[in-house]
């Protein structure tokens, strides 16, 4: 259910409707938009008796939302959500005119490694650095990440290079720490349907980067985002990182058509990760170009100065000079579409 308020409704009127919704035992989610505020209602198992809401001051109408996802839906909010990430080097946005750029190693391995890569990507113009401190690995014998030590290195990267930092939480325990250190909390593909983790991320006070599960449909991705939003965290960035198919020329198949599909159904921004999407260094640049061209709200790539010795995802990590080329080409393609990079 969605309560649409008049464009000139006052804050008190919006608040009064939210209070009425809560008094009925539901949860109210006010979503201010350019033209009007809509209030999403969740927590109901059946139809909601709208009689008492319909007639409240400032209300235009109550609309039943037929889709399974409500808060992520464009029905609730016709304008794009712009997720704003403050960094020491300035704000980076996802969902606005600028394409958000994110780069860094798959995993934080040492302070020196993180600093070398951070310095290079910052020099190329990136303002968001991504590196894993907790790594969900297929094998229990593979490098699992540095844990809190890695988070501390990320905090140093922020201070030293002026970069905002993004890192993955793999369970509720690591999320507590990630929330403390990072600017954006990543939920990885393998955890896209870890519902208790999604709920915990929904209670976090930092934006969430939610990666699509490797066999998740669009509806499943949107429902995972709905879990986060239904707990009150509306700053969700979706991420296409490839899905598993029969191809053997790439690690995954990057589903670029999901970008316009998401943008049609949802107001949330969607970024593309061609590193996991292809698994091959030589395909990251061409697919990054394509991602900007298709209208992605951001690009996330893995960069390593010595990929042959990387502790994870070396084969798909591009070199710093390749990242620099990627930034130049992405900027040119974005300009054709009237967009910029940030
Ligand atoms: C990662 O971002 O390094 C990662 C593990 O990605 P994904 O969850 O998409 O596999
Ligand atoms: Mn990786």
Your description of this structure?
With 342 residues, the protein is of the alpha/beta class. 47% of the residues are buried. The strands form 3 sheets. Strands 7-8-9-10-11-12-13-14 form an 8-stranded parallel barrel, surrounded by 8 helices. Helix 3 links the parallel strand 7 (98-104) and strand 8. Helices cover 35% and strands 19% of the residues. Helix 3 (111-123) runs parallel beside helix 11 (320-336). It has helices at 11-23, 51-54, 111-123, 148-161, 172-181, 195-202, 218-230, 258-265, 274-278, 281-294, 320-336, and strands at 2-5, 27-32, 37-42, 59-63, 83-85, 92-94, 98-104, 128-130, 164-168, 184-187, 208-211, 236-240, 270-272, 298-302, 340-341. It folds into 2 domains: 2-63, Alpha-Beta Plaits (2-Layer Sandwich); 83-341, Aldolase class I (TIM Barrel, Alpha-Beta Barrel). The structure holds phosphoenolpyruvate (PEP) and manganese (II) ion.
Explain briefly what this protein structure is:
With 342 residues, this protein is an alpha/beta fold. It has helices at residues 11-23, 51-54, 111-123, 148-161, 172-181, 195-202, 218-230, 258-265, 274-278, 281-294, 320-336, and strands at residues 2-5, 27-32, 37-42, 59-63, 83-85, 92-94, 98-104, 128-130, 164-168, 184-187, 208-211, 236-240, 270-272, 298-302, 340-341. It folds into two domains: 2-63, 2-Layer Sandwich (Alpha-Beta Plaits); 83-341, Alpha-Beta Barrel (TIM Barrel).
């Amino acid at each position: 259910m969605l309560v649409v308020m008049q464009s000139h409704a006052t804050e008190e009127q919006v608040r009064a409707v939210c209070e009425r919704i809560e008094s009925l035992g539901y949860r109210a989610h006010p979503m201010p938009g350019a033209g009007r505020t809509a209030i999403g209602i969740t927590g109901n198992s059946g139809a909601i008796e709208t009689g008492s809401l319909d007639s409240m001051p400032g209300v235009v109408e109550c609309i039943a939302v037929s889709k399974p996802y409500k808060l992520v839906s464009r029905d609730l909010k016709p304008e794009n959500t712009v997720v704003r990430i403050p960094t020491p080097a300035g704000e980076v946005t996802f969902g606005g005119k600028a394409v958000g750029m994110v780069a860094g190693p798959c995993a934080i391995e040492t302070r020196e490694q993180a600093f070398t890569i951070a310095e290079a990507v910052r020099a190329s113009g990136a303002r968001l650095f991504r590196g894993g401190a907790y790594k969900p690995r297929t094998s229990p014998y593979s490098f699992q990440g540095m844990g809190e030590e890695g988070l501390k290195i990320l905090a140093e990267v922020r201070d030293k290079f002026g970069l905002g930092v993004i890192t993955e939480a793999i369970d509720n325990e690591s999320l507590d720490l990630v929330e403390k250190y990072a600017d954006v909390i990543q939920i990885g593909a393998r955890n896209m349907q870890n519902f208790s983790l999604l709920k915990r991320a929904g209670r976090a006070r930092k934006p969430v980067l939610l990666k699509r599960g490797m066999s998740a449909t669009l509806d499943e991705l949107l429902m995972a985002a709905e879990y986060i939003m239904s707990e009150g965290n509306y700053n969700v960035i979706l991420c296409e990182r490839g899905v598993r198919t029969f191809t053997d020329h790439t690690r995954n198949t990057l589903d670029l058509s999901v970008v316009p599909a998401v943008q049609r159904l949802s107001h949330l921004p969607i970024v593309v990760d061609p590193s996991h999407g292809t698994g091959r260094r030589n395909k990251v640049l061409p697919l990054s170009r394509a991602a900007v061209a298709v209208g992605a709200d951001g690009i996330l790539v893995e960069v390593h100065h010595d990929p042959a010795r990387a502790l994870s995802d070396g084969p798909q990590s591009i070199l710093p000079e390749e990242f620099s080329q990627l930034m130049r080409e992405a900027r040119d393609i974005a300009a054709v579409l009237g967009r910029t990079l940030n």
